[in-house]
Amino acid sequence: MDIPALLTSAGMNIGISVGLFSLYSILRKQPLNVRVYFGQRISQGRTRSEDICFQKFVPSASWILKAWEATEEDIFAHGGIDAVVFLRIVIFSIRIFAIATILCIFLVLPLNYFGEGMRMGDEDSTAMDLLTIGNVGEGSRWLWAHCFTLYVISACACTLLYFEYKNIAKMRMDQVNRFPTKPSHFTVLVRGVPWSSVDSYSESVGKFFSNYYTSSYISHQIVYRFGAVQQLMEDAEKMYKVMTTVPGKHCCEPNVGRCGLCGANSNSIKGAGPESGSESTSRNVDDELREKESEAALVFFRSRYDALVVAHTIQSADPMLWVTELAPEPKDVYWQNLCVPYNLLWIRKISVFIASIVFSILFLLPTTFVQGLTKIQHLQNAFPFLKRVSDRSYINLITGYLPSLVLTVFLTIVPPLMMLFSTLEGAVSRSTRKRSACVKVLIFMFWNVYFSNILSGSWIERMGKLTVTSPKDLATLLAELIPRQASFFMTYVMTSGWSGLGCELLQPVPLIGNWLFKCVLMKEEDFVRPVTFSFHTEVTRVLLFGLLGFTFCILAPLILPFLLIYFCFAFLVYRNQIMNVYYVKYQTDGSYWPLAHNATIFSLILTQVVAGILFGMKKSSSASTSTIPLIICTALFNVFCKNRFLPLFKNRAIQVAIEMDRDDERNGKLQEMVENLPEAYNQFELCEDQMQPKGGDTPKSKKSSNESLKDLEIVKPGSPPTEEEPPSPAAPQLESEPEPKIVSIT
Fold this sequence. Notes:
- There is one protein chain.
- The protein is mainly α.
- The protein has two domains: 3-181 and 345-650, no CATH class; 183-341, no CATH class.
- It has helices at residues 3-27, 34-37, 39-43, 62-69, 72-113, 143-178, 201-212, 228-245, 266-271, 274-291, 304-311, 335-338, 345-362, 364-374, 386-390, 395-400, 402-411, 414-425, 430-462, 471-481, 486-506, 508-520, 535-552, 559-580, 592-617, 621-644, 646-650, 654-667, 670-675, 677-680, 683-690, 703-713, and strands at 187-191, 217-224, 293-301, 323-326.
- A four-stranded antiparallel β-sheet has the order 2-3-1-4.
- α8 (228-245) packs antiparallel against α10 (274-291) and α25 (592-617) runs antiparallel to α26.
- The protein is globular and about 90 Å long.
């Protein structure tokens, strides 16, 4: 790709970004779009009215100032710890790439340009290649400047990573003290309950834990197959209504022997009173519930310490039976996957792994097509008709802007598909499912966006003469080819990054759907409801751009200003979205940071390896050898961080749990918490929330249904009635808050 094509792409993306940002500043002021752009604020009831005025139709940047002025406490109050951690990833990227941009633009880039390692008339070189390390001559002493810059960037990155890891680990520990009454601290999820021909699953769980955990076990709640509970309760309620209302409404006279409409004696109707009907209904529901039981249960214990001990120990000599782990939060439970037999999970994981590999291989087709658009000049010999296209005036648009746009469009199917794969794997919580999808998307992006584009683009340039026979050949090939793909990744950063931020602000799908729902279909109810933040999409994009920044920092420094602009605008855009659009339903307590740390370490080591190979290819053995200690130190730093901080993200401290139990016991709160545990994990209410339509409000479950389910599911009846758990301050609940009448939002 040459400079005119790059400038064409830059002009297109700048125009689109400015247009989307301006359009957002207008649309956010319109009363019709309140649900689209202020769903999070509506969920907290923070609204106020304002009269229609001319300023509503004038673009403004007031939202940028509000996003900038927001503090970290404000972000935590609106988005929780996961939102804070995500923004810390963005802030880390701003800091490290600001340092890298200053060093590389003013030190490395001039040395690359005046290196005279290639001539402008070379057949395979372009004007962009003169700005890369490929233009530095062999044996040049200027390569020591590249090596020095690499050392400085690596040292700064590791230092920033350490302090961020330390602060986020402390933030995660403080999260436990901030919300000490979480039901999950006392609850253990049990899977792989053995089948018995004598006892039901519920009876087996009760007998097992009553026998081995007599002093700490309270009760348990069996998990029913998803959808069965709601249907059973609705049927039971209908049957109860029939049995209680029919005797009072006789369709024939009492003295008549037979009712012609009903086909039964009137006396028999009178004899079927409410009490006998209720007993029959109860027996039928009990039998059907027993058939719908799954081999999973939620077991409640008297203290946090007891729950931790049970969750982290093996309960049986057979590791596939009585498998225990700490339960997710009630709103975080993914009930469908709790019903999956535990012994089938490994089959699901293998199938998902194979499906992911097959999809990655198939995705090489659009990747090769994209690179073919950028390398039209190299395809003219094989396809002569392309010569007419390359002579057109719009060739810069085809080779500059179109490839990155096509790749971005194809990549939109990746996050939903990876979310489906994570669901099929059997994740028991929504947060675990989203984090698993984040890992899959990240691996896919690193391979298919980074490595596949580099290899396929180089294969097209050499028209099938690209051969790799060993890992050493692959490393050498990457070192040679990565700088030549810098221009394509610059356009990708602008299209997926700059324009992507504009689309994130505009929310085109909810916006168009809301307009059609309200203006075309003339519906009064709301089409849009607040949604949770798509961490599996946005975290991977930030980390992918981090990989591009590290690997190209000394090889092709011109990409760094494009990345720095993206990260600065991402900081403002995501703060605005977290405070206004997305609401918190569940948390992972900052578990995305270890993923970001590992991705950054991988990017650093890959950069150091590629740089060392390139220094060797440039016949600078001393500079090449000096990268070896840097690689070793980076790997040792990663090991240190894993040993020092990672256990805090995987386990809960027994010491903290015991101290919290003692404090609650002294204050008299422990017994009250324990009594409210069964009500917190009411499967009927939680499943009802999950199945509600996106455009409607959460239906309120009826009291009779809730009480019936509680009596059927809890093993030890007779416990005092419990009150509903108050919503967490960090997780505002839409269902429990009245929705004010809104004119507009300021």
